[in-house]
User: Which sequence fits this backbone?
C-alpha cells in the first residue's frame, strides 16, 4: 500500500498537477475536523461518491482518516475499482496537525470561506434582519429573493420572499424587478449564498440598490421574527427582452473575470483526453430543463449549488470543468465564480446544448462494484414471513436521518463501514437482512458481511423503496442504533443545547473562516506560499 507524508501532501496541494484528496470518514467526523481541500467521501458510500468526485481512474488519489482504519480499507477498494495511483496519508489528519498545518471544521468550507472573502473584497452591501423588517413595515419598495433551491425555500423562508436559486438570479432579475427604484435583498439560510447572490446581481450591472440579508434566515429567527412555511412563489422565466439583457450582462462578466469558452470540437477533444486530464461537465439549468434534454455526460447541479459546494461535486483539484446551459447566461455566471475560486480550467460550452445529441430524464449515478457484490436477496413478502416466525432481523444502513424519519418496524440502524465489527457477537441462528433507502447500498453492505462471523446474510430486494412499494408500513417509532450515528452532519434544529445557540455558533464559525484559511495558506485565491 502506497503512503505519503503530510509534508508531501501539502506540496501536492500547492502544486500544479491534479490531485484528489478524499477523507473517507463518516460525514459527522469529517465535519468536526479535516484538511481544507479534502472532499468527504465516506467509506460507507465510497462506491457511489468516488466515481463522481474522481471520474479519472488514473488521477493521483490520497485517502485519509483520523487513525480509525478507514483509509486502509478504502485504498485497496479503490484499487480494485481501477484507481491506479492511490496513497494513504501516514498518520491521517493527526499527522497533518502535528506537522503544524491547519485543520478546518464544517462542510463546503472552500465555498463558504470564499463567500466571506467575496464580501470583504467587493464590499458587498448588506442589511440586518431588523432593518429589513422595519423597512418593509414602513412600506419601502423592496423585493426579497431567496437564492436557495426550492425545497429549502419551501421549508422556511422570509415572509414575502420569492424563490430564485443562485445562478438564476442574474438570468431572471431583469423581469423579476423591472423598476430600477426597487431595492433588492438576497437571502439564504446563512451567509454564503446571500453574499454570492447579491454580488452576482451587482456584477450583472443592474441599476437597483442590491443588498444581502446579513446572516440570512438564521438572523431573521434570532431577531424574534416569524419565518414563513410552505411558500411556493418563484420568479418566472425571463422574457425575450430579459434574456437579451442577461446575455449582455453575462458578456461583460465573462470579459471582466476572464471566463473562457470552448466549442464542441474542443469538448470532443477533452472527452478523448479524459484518461489523462480529469473532465467534469455540469449542466447548471433547472432540473426540469435538464431532464427535458441534456448532454449525455453532463451531470445536473444548479449553478448556485455548484458554487456553494464545490467540494461535494469536484474532488479533483485543477481538473477541467465545462459548464453548460442553453444560452450562456447561467453557465457564465457560474463559471465566473469558479474561476475566481481558482478553478483555472472552468469554461463555458459555446452555444450550450444546441446542436448536440441529447438524452432525457435523470440518469442514475454510477455505483462501483455493484455487479461484483456477493449477496443474495430476499423479497419483502418473504422477509415479512420470516420476521413473523422470529427467524430474521433487519439492519438499516440508510443515512441515520432517513432512518429516524422512517424504517421497517424493529430494524436497527448501522453505519455500513462498521457493520462487521458491530454485529460480530450476534446470534447466528437468525437470518440477518440488510436494507437501505435504495437497494444498491443494501447489496453492497450485505456483500461486505460475506465471510464475517455474523451468520447468514441477505439484502432486501428493492430496499426500503421496495418494502413500501409492496404495501408494508414504515415507522419512526423505537429507533435503535448499533453505535453512534456519525454518518450525518447535525443540523441546527437538531443540535444539543438548542437551535438558537447552534445558529449563533454556526454564524460565528462562518465569519471566522477567513482567519482559518489564512492560517492554512493553501486556498487558491489566498496563497501564502
Assistant:
Amino acid at each position: 500500500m502506497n503512503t505519503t507524508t503530510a509534508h508531501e501532501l501539502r506540496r501536492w496541494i500547492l502544486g500544479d498537477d491534479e490531485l484528489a484528496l478524499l477523507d473517507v470518514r463518516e460525514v459527522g467526523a469529517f465535519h468536526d475536523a479535516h484538511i481544507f481541500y479534502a472532499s468527504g467521501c465516506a467509506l460507507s458510500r465510497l462506491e457511489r461518491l468516488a466515481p463522481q468526485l474522481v471520474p479519472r481512474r488514473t488521477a493521483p488519489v490520497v485517502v485519509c482518516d483520523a487513525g480509525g482504519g478507514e483509509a486502509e480499507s478504502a485504498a485497496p477498494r479503490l484499487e480494485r475499482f481501477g484507481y491506479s495511483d492511490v496513497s494513504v496519508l501516514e498518520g491521517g489528519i493527526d499527522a497533518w496537525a502535528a506537522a503544524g498545518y491547519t485543520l478546518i471544521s464544517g462542510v463546503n468550507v472552500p465555498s463558504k470561506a470564499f463567500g466571506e472573502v467575496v464580501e470583504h473584497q467587493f464590499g458587498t452591501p448588506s442589511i440586518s434582519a431588523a432593518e429589513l423588517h422595519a423597512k418593509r413595515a414602513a412600506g419601502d419598495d423592496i423585493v426579497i429573493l431567496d437564492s436557495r433551491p426550492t425545497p429549502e425555500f419551501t421549508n422556511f423562508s422570509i415572509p414575502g420572499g420569492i424563490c430564485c436559486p443562485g445562478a438564476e438570479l442574474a438570468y431572471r432579475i431583469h423581469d423579476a424587478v423591472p423598476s430600477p427604484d426597487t431595492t433588492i435583498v438576497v437571502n439564504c439560510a446563512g451567509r454564503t449564498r446571500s453574499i454570492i447572490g447579491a454580488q452576482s446581481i451587482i456584477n450583472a450591472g443592474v441599476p437597483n440598490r442590491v443588498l444581502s440579508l446579513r446572516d440570512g434566515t438564521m438572523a431573521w429567527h434570532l431577531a424574534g421574527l416569524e419565518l414563513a412555511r410552505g411558500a411556493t412563489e418563484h420568479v418566472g422565466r425571463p422574457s425575450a427582452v430579459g434574456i437579451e439583457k442577461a446575455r449582455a450582462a453575462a458578456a461583460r462578466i465573462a470579459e471582466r473575470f476572464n471566463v473562457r469558452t470552448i466549442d464542441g470540437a474542443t469538448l470532443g477533444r477533452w472527452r478523448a483526453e479524459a484518461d489523462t486530464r480529469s473532465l467534469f461537465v455540469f449542466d447548471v439549468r433547472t432540473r426540469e430543463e435538464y431532464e427535458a434534454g441534456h448532454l449525455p455526460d453532463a451531470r445536473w447541479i444548479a449553478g448556485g449549488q455548484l458554487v456553494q459546494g464545490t467540494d461535494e461535486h469536484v474532488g479533483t483539484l485543477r481538473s477541467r470543468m465545462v459548464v453548460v446551459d442553453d444560452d450562456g447566461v447561467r453557465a457564465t455566471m457560474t463559471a465566473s465564480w469558479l474561476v475566481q475560486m481558482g478553478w483555472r480550467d472552468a469554461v463555458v460550452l459555446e452555444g450550450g446544448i444546441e446542436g448536440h445529441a441529447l438524452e432525457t430524464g435523470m440518469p442514475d449515478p454510477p455505483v462501483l462494484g455493484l455487479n461484483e457484490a456477493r449477496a443474495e436477496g430476499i423479497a419483502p413478502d418473504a422477509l415479512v414471513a420470516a420476521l413473523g416466525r422470529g427467524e430474521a432481523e433487519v439492519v438499516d444502513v440508510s443515512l441515520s436521518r432517513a432512518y429516524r424519519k422512517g424504517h421497517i418496524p424493529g430494524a436497527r440502524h448501522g453505519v455500513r463501514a462498521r457493520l462487521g465489527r458491530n454485529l460480530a457477537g450476534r446470534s447466528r441462528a437468525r437470518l440477518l437482512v440488510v436494507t437501505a433507502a435504495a437497494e444498491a447500498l443494501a447489496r453492497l453492505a450485505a456483500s461486505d458481511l460475506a465471510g464475517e462471523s455474523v451468520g447468514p446474510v441477505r439484502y432486501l430486494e428493492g430496499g426500503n423503496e421496495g418494502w413500501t412499494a409492496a404495501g408494508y408500513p414504515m415507522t419512526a417509532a423505537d429507533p435503535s442504533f448499533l453505535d453512534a450515528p456519525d454518518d450525518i452532519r447535525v443540523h441546527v434544529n437538531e443540535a444539543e443545547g438548542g437551535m438558537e445557540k447552534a445558529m449563533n455558533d454556526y454564524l460565528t464559525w462562518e465569519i471566522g473562516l477567513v482567519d482559518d484559511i489564512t492560517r492554512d495558506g493553501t486556498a487558491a485565491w489566498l496563497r501564502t506560499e
